[in-house]
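Chain and backbone:
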Amino acid sequence: MSTAYADERGPGAGRRDAEATKTAIVKAARYLLARHAHGDITLKAVADRAGVSPPLILKYFGNKDALFSGVMNFEADVESFLDAPLADLGRHMVRHVLTGQAERGADPILRIVFAPLHGEQGEILRANFRAQVSGALAGRLTGEDAGLRAELAVSMLLGLGVMYGIARGPHVRAAGIDEVVDRYAPAVQTQLGPFSHGDP
C-alpha cells in the first residue's frame, strides 16, 4: 500500500508520508536513469518501481521533465559530500562514497558514472556535475590550480566507486571501509592541498 495518503496517526503524519513517497519516486527515477536513456523512461516505469500511481508523480512533480530535472541536480547531495573541514575532507569523501555503495547500493554523486550521457539530458547532467560537484569542491580549495585539483580528486573518488560498485572488486569489497579509507584517503587529500611546482 502506498504511503502517499494522510491517515489518522496525528498531525504531520500525512506530510511525512508525502515526503517518503516523493523520496521513493526520486530514488526510482535515479535507478532508471542509471540504466536507461531519459527518453526511454516512462512515468509508468517510475511509478511501478516506486510503488505509486503515475498521477501521483504528476501531483508531486508536475511532469516528467520536472521530475528528472531534480534527479539530474546534485546540489542536495553535495552538501553532505563536502560536509567536513578541509583538513579531513579527503577521508570524509572517500567514506561517503564507500558508505553510499555499501548501505544504499550507490552514492548519489556516482549518477554521473551510471547514467547514460547522450542527448540533451546528458548535457544537463554533465553541466550540473561540473558546476555542483567538482566546481563546488574547487570553491573549497585554496592555492593554484584549484579546479584541476578538484577534478583530479573527484576522478579518484569516481574510480573507487566504479571499482566497488560496478567492477565489484573482490579485494576492495572484502576490506573494511576503515581500511580502504586509511589507504585511499591520503591520495585524495593530497589533491586538496596547494601544489608547489617546485616540489620533487
